[in-house]
Amino acid sequence: MIPHLSLSFCLYVSAALFAIGVYGVLSRQNLIVILMSLELMLNAVNLSTIAFGRAFLPASPPDPSGPQVFVVMVLAVAAAEAAVGLSILLAVFRKWRTTHAGRIDMLKG
Amino acid sequence: MARYLFLIPILPFAGFLVNGLAGRRLPRWAVSLVGCAGPTAAAVLAGLAFSEVAAGPASVLQASLGDWIRAGRDFHVPLALSLDRLSGVMALVVTGVGTLIHVYSIGYMREDPGYARFFAYLNLFMAAMLVLVLADNILLLFLGWEGVGLCSYLLIGFWYKDLSNCDAGIKAFVVNRIGDFGFILGVFLIFITFGTFELEAIDSRAAAAAARDPLVMKAIALLLFLGATGKSAQIPLYVWLPDAMAGPTPVSALIHAATMVTSGVYLLARLDQLFLASGALPVVAWIGALTALLAALIALAQTDIKKVLAYSTVSQLGYMFLACGVAAFPVAIFHLVTHAFFKAVLFLGAGAVIHSLHHEQDMRRMGGLFRRIPLTGAVFLAGALALSGFPLTSGFFSKDEILHETLSGGQGLLYSVGLTTAVLTAFYAFRQFALVFLGTYRGAGAERGDAHGGGHGTFPPRSPRGDEHTFPPRSPRGDEHTFPPRSPRGDEHGHGAHEIHGSPPSMMAPLAVLAFLALCGGFLAVPHFLAGSGETAAHAAAGTAGAEGQVTGWIVGGAATVLGILAALGLFVWRPALRERIVQGTAGGRLLARLSLDKLYVDELYDALVVKPFWFLSHVLFLVIDRFVIDFACVRGTGLLARTLGAALGRLQTGKIPSYAFYFVGGVLVLMTLVLWAAG
Q1: B149 secondary structure, DSSP code
Q2: What's the rounded Cα separation, in Å, for the pair B278 and B263?
Q3: What are residue B362's phi and psi, to 5 degrees?
Q4: Residue B393 and residue B376: Cα distance in Å, rounded?
Q5: Residues of A in contact with B666 (CB under 8 A)
Q6: Any bridge partners for residue B63, and if so which?
């Protein structure tokens, strides 16, 4: 255990990661980068979950329903999401020959 | 017999169904047969029932078909009829006079394309009127009340191709609606006060209720009386009746003289204890007397043969209400009966005259007809005598009984109004007789050979043909005897088609019967008969006590009548020059003639006070509510709002992923702010 790694420090890092992710989703036009930013946001949440677990739950015995379980779950979902997202991206690229988000406006009725 | 009581209204109703549904496919003789059979059978049944009731002193026939309306624990209205002496007399008058008028209509309406429709309406009217008369509770009475109002409307606008007829029908309907509004409020109050609709129960509990709560009783009486003024054409709601003359003449005779318009009087007589206890009778008496006087004044100068009779009807109804107002209810019914006889004669006689003159109704174009159609003249004279109250005719007894009751009730002022009206009545009755039957013929046919040129007055002669597009025009057979000619107007030496002719037997026979009744009906002791039922024994006793006063009353009343008749004959037959001098020469005569001819400007007054403000209000509401609020704000406003909002918000939907992501993040931020704000 690293004593300097306090809860608030972890939360700041998590918030920074999350903000970067949000910024990336909002500002970047490349769909791949947007997906990456999404992963960043997910991991920011994971980080804060772990930090909360560390701060408020006893280390031993390990709680099977503890935050680690959530994190693993989120990682699995994120992997699935990345798979689906990337395959959609592939299909989009095949159809329009671009990964530029601003060019894809088929959602407009 | 009580078991057959329901047949009395049902039989005419069956006639209505047959003629109304299948009448157009039936030959005319079948329509006539069906149309007259119902009322005739009803008359026979009513006669049987009446004789049964008349035998016992206070027997009542009652029949019930179970509940008509049942709601909750307290509210149930039985479908029940009852026939006692009062409703028996009414039923006899309605069915008797009604049957005669049905028979008369066979001749009068012979050439009309709406023949079956006419009989269907007439039968429906009979059914509704009999329900009104025989009803055991006031709600059933109201059903009949509205039914006769509907038939009145339908029959006034019978010749619906002429818009003025439809207007008259609507006027009658709307004016009656005002009265009916009062009536139904009265019915509500009755139910609240008495907890029942049964007429007998209401009447017997009225005195106790009045002691408990005099104000409510007064309100009930006045509200019911408002209904009566509508139906029975009294001030302030009499204005529809003269216009109702737009209907065919048999209708005027049956509905607007003999039966329907008397139902207000019947209502008062039916609930006599209620009215006695309520303390509203002085109002009734004064309204009656003033209506009698006012209508008689208007009748003086009318030129339309039916309008004179219409105002005369209003005036005579005023007499009946005067009688009710001095608590002489049996006398009111007596006058109702005699009036039904003589006014039916007068109207049917006028119808025969109109028929003879090919639908000419303006008395200024008549005259000297006694020599041409003496039979019609004779029956008309009988009616006029009875209307004037000439000694020993029916009107003499009933009217003098009313005046006598008024005087013995200590109402000197009302008596003098009544007596003045009696003089006026005799005057206008014989003015009419003189204008129509005496002197020389002034009709257009006499000089111009065209009985149809002018078309002035309120009734343009209607075309005999093509009135109902559903009917093929009738074959011309018999036209030259019965109807205005289809011959071209160039027929200058008009003969044949323009000839004044008598009326067929189907018209003359009912006239003769009614004329006989008009002359001799006064010997029916209706008041004593009704008083015998115990309800009004006190008044009967008072009546016999004043027997010497009665003789004086007869002399005074007879003198008033003779004075009026002589004045009319003097001014219109013997000294027409004098009449001209009075009407033209003196300011008072000019004013009176003008006021009377223009109906005292009551229609104009109502127009200014009621119709115009209502019209104005409607217009304002139309502009503000309908045009602005409904049309602009609601209808166009919602559309406009949706379109503007749609156009504005549609811009947000770019279809681009980054913008949606941006909204999403913005939304999350807003939500977070809200949650934090709520928590902190």
Answers
A1: H
A2: 20
A3: -85, 120
A4: 18
A5: none
A6: B81
What's the rounded Cα separation, in Å, for the pair B631 and B621? 12
Per-residue pLDDT for B484 more than 80? no
**Calpha distance B191→B566 (Å, rounded):** 53
Q: Which one of A22, A25, A107 has the shortest CB-CB distance to B655?
A: A107
- Whether residue B654 and residue A105 make contact (CB cut-off 8 A), yes or no, is yes
CB contact under 8 A, B658 and A101: yes
Q: In 3-state terms, what secondary structure has residue B437?
A: helix
Provide DSSP, B330-382. HHHHHHHHHHHHHHHHHHHHHHHHHHHTTS--BGGG---HHHHSHHHHHHHHH
Q: B665 and B586 in one domain?
A: no
**Mean pLDDT computed over every residue of chain B:** 84
Range of the domain at A69: 7-103
Q: B586 and B612 share a domain?
A: no
Q: Count of domains in chain A?
A: 1
For chain B, how many structural domains are there in total? 2
From first CA to last CA, the distance across chain A in angstroms is: 55
Give the span between the Cα atoms of B173 and B231, in whole angstroms. 10
Say how many Å lie between the first and final Cα of chain B, rounded.
90
Identity (one letter) of the amino acid at A2? I
Q: Which residues of chain B neighbour A106 with C-beta distances below 8 Å?
A: 655
Report CA-CA distances (Å) from B334 to B58, B80, B320, B481, B524.
19, 26, 9, 40, 9
Residue A108: the pLDDT is 64
Question: Does residue B664 share a domain with residue B522?
Answer: no
Helices within B157-271 (DSSP H only): 163-194, 199-212, 214-231, 240-243, 249-253, 263-270
CB-based contact, B646 to chain A, within 8 Å: no
- Chain B CB within 8 Å of residue A25 CB: yes
* 8 A C-beta contact, residue A47 and residue A67: no
Q: Can you tell me whether residue B473 is helix, strand or coil?
A: coil
| Residue A57, pLDDT score | 78
Does residue B443 have a pLDDT over 80? no
pLDDT one-digit tens code per residue, B95-142: 999 999 999 999 898 888 889 999 999 999 999 999 999 999 999 999
Percent of chain B with pLDDT over 70: 89
CB contacts, 8 Å: B652 with chain A: none
Is B609 found in the same domain as B574? no
CATH assignment at residue A22: 1.10.287.3510
Lowest mean pLDDT among B527-541, B608-622, B630-644: B527-541
Identify any residues that bridge with B80 across adjacent strands, giving them in sequence order: B64
Could you say which of B572, B596, B620 is where a domain stops?
B596
Which one-letter amino acid corresponds to residue B273? Q
A108: in domain: no
- Residues B506 and B109 sit within 8 Å (Cβ to Cβ): no
Among A23, A25, A36, most B C-beta atoms within 10 A, so best to mutate, is: A25
- Residue in B with minimal Cα distance to A109: B655
Model-level pTM greater than 0.80?
Answer: no
- Using only the alpha carbons of chain A, give its radius of gyration: 18
List, as one string, the DSSP characters of B499-567.
Answer: ------HHHHHHHHHHHHHHHHGGGS-HHHHHHTTSTTHHHHHHHHHTHHHHHHHHHHHHHHHHHHHHH
- State the average pLDDT over residues B166-184: 93
What distances in angstroms separate CA B552 from CA B210, B386, B403, B549, B558, one per listed residue? 37, 19, 11, 5, 10
B556 and B611 both lie in a single domain? no
Structure tokens at B133: 């008369």
Same domain, B588 and B649: no
Domain limit, last residue, from B570, B596, B622: B596
Does A34 contact B665 at a Cβ distance shorter than 8 Å? no
Quick check: B373 and B511 in contact, CB under 8 A? no
